[in-house]
Structures are given as structure tokens and as C-alpha cells.
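Quick one: co-fold with nicotinamide-adenine-dinucleotide.
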Amino acid sequence: MNNKTVNVLVAGAGGFIGGHLIEFLLAKGYRVRAVDKKPQTQWYQRNTSIENLTLDLSLLPNCYTAMQGIDEVYNLAADMGGMGFIENNKALCMLSVLINTHLLQAAKDVGAKRFFFASSACVYAAGKQLITDVTALKEADAYPAEPEDGYGWEKLFSERMCRHFREDFGIAARVARYHNVYGPFGTYAGGREKAPAAICRKVIEAKMSAKHEIEIWGDGEQTRSFMFIDDCLKGTFDILQSDWHEPINLGSNQMVSINQLVDIVEGIAGIKLKRSYNLNAPKGVRGRNSDNELIKQVFGWEPSIKLIDGLRQTYAWIEQEMKGSGSGKSVVNLY
Ligand code: NAD
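Sure, here it is.
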């Protein structure tokens, strides 16, 4: 099928990944409809050449409105954030189940062919993430189920909803388990920000003030991997277009500690800060990494952007935003 005749819905278009995905799909010639519940003045990126709708997709009638004439769906809409948000808002996180369920129902009823669901590494069993030098998580490690409370349970349940819609109704539902995605045009303040953006912001704040100190959540030895947005977009697209229907890891396998992440950002900023460790702050699992054997084998996909390079771009954008507004406001409108 010629891309120009394929109508694509991006749900969660006002968010970080959704905003980038729209530009990626437009560059490939797709016809894109963008939907988010946030007022459009708050979208991180908004392309005025396409149809932009403000709808709460947790409501079934709104999903039918969004889905009219749609062939392919990317569901990136969720009430989410970093550990600070998901540990304290479990009910809100679980309510995202309504978005995916209603989108799937509407997709099936309008005859959409393909459906992408953005799952998360938070589906993985907590007992397999107890040490910093952890074994990278394989797809099979999601079961027996012991996911992150709230957010992770919703993702795991919605993965299965996708599977049953595929098996019972024939919709090509595809699921990627994202491991920490970062980059420009995303949340860096306000409580929903994730570690890379939060650390960039804190380092910039310290640099802009005379107070050369940084607070780190936990002891900083907890480990994670971080995928730059461009790698995420390519992987997401390839997964939706493929015949592979099992949930699959999409993330970097370069594991670093939070202290190492701070080292890198300090290097970019050209500053050294005094660190204080808040051991009572939300920390999440002790160690997590992505095993990329399967995605490499099936898609030949590997992360192509080095952490330092991706962080440079992210840091530059956040710095520009903070200097521009001076308020830490994370909204950018591309009108
Ligand atoms: P984001 O918070 O920037 O974007 C999500 C968007 O969904 C927001 O703009 C929000 O307004 C919208 N939304 C929430 N509820 C909605 C509703 N009821 N109706 C319509 N829109 C609604 O998040 P993101 O980082 O772009 O993440 C996109 C997806 O990827 C989410 O499903 C998230 O759980 C998943 N994910 C992201 C990461 C990451 O590191 N960013 C990691 C794992 C999984």
C-alpha cells in the first residue's frame, strides 16, 4: 500500500514520543491524525498541517470519533511519568487501561488493520531486578507476573488485551516494551519527568544558580538503560509494520548507574556538583537492563545513538527552554 493512502492515528500526540512520531510518519508520507486530551497549547510539538483533535480517549465515544477512517493506530496515550509519578499515582496509571481497551474496541469496529501499543519495561517481574549488576531482562521474564504495582500491571493487562484482540478479531496488534526513552521535546519539570531530563534540569539549575549542588534520588547506584528518541521511533515503526506479534523489548542495552548518568551530564555542562542523596525518594527497582537478542535477531534493530550524544541534544534543548522561559515551563508549540 502507498503510504499516502494510509490513514494513521497517533494517540497521545501531545506527549513526548507521540510528538516525535508524527514528524517521523509525515516524513514517510503517511496521512496522520493527532489526538491528545491536553489542550493543544500544551502539546510538546504540534504540526498545523495535519488534523489535530483534543479528545479524552478513555471514553469510548471519543475513540470512535478519533478512529473514523483510520487504517493504523499508534497508542502512546497514557497517564504516566517517572518514578516520582508512578509510585504515587497508581490508580491514575491503571485507569489508562480504559484508553487502550476503548481504542482497541473502536479500531476493531472501524476495521483498522494495525494497532501499536506502547508497553514498558515496568511489566518485568520485580524479583528479577534486585541487584545493580542485574541480568538483562528477556521477554520471557515478564512471567510469572510480578510487575511494577499500578503502572506495570496496567501495561501487562493491556498487552494481553492486544493479544486477545489479535487472536479473536484478527487485528494486527503489536506491542513494544520500551525501556526509558529520552530526548528533546519531553517533560523535564513538574513531577512527571524521568531521570535523564530531571538530571539535565537539575544540573542546569545548579549551573544557573550559585548553588553547585544536586539532589539524587536513592544512593545513585541503581542501574538503568536509556534509549534516544530517534532509535525508539524507528523500532516502533518497524514493529508495527512487521508480522512479529509477541511483546518485544525496545530499549538500549547500555546499562549505567544514576551516578554515571550524572557524571555524563556534568561533563556536558562542564561542571562538577556536590551530590546529596535522598534515600526516601522513589527509586524503583534496583537494577534494569534490556536484553536485545530477540529484537536484533528479528528486526536487525540495535540502538544507534550513543548515550552521550543523545544527552547532549537533550541537555541543549532543556537549557534553551529554561533560559528562554526562565520558568522551567516544558511546553513548546511549533505553530
Ligand atoms: P507523555 O506523558 O509525554 O505522553 C502521553 C500523552 O498521552 C500525554 O500527552 C497525555 O496528555 C496523553 N493522554 C493521557 N491520557 C489521555 C487520554 N485519556 N486521552 C488522550 N490522551 C491522553 O509520555 P511518553 O513518554 O510520550 O510515553 C508514550 C507512551 O510510551 C506511554 O504509553 C508510556 O507509558 C510509554 N512508555 C514511555 C516510556 C518513556 O521512557 N518515555 C517508557 C516506557 C513506556
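If it helps, The two ends are 31 Å apart (CA to CA).
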